[in-house]
Amino acid sequence: MRATPERMAIRSKLLEVYAKRRDIKAFELLATQMFNLTRGEGEDWKKAQELGLGIDPENILYAPGGQPEEVRAAGGVMMPDSLGASTQPYTAPVQPPAFRPASDATLDSRPDDPAPSSAMDLDLDLEFPGGTVVNPPAPLPARAQPIPITETTQAFTTAAQMGGWFRKEVKTVEDLKGVKMRIGGFAGQALTKLGVIPQQIAGGDIYPALEKGTIDAAEWVGPYDDQKLGFNKVAPFYYYPGWWEGGAMLNFFMNDKKWAELPKSYQSIVTSAAALANVDMQSKYDARNPKALKELVATGAQLRPFSQEIMEACLKASKEVNAETAAKNADFKKVHDAMMAFRADQYLWFQIAEYGYDSFMIRARAGNML
Question: What are phi and psi of 279, to 5 degrees?
Answer without folding.
Answer: -70, -40
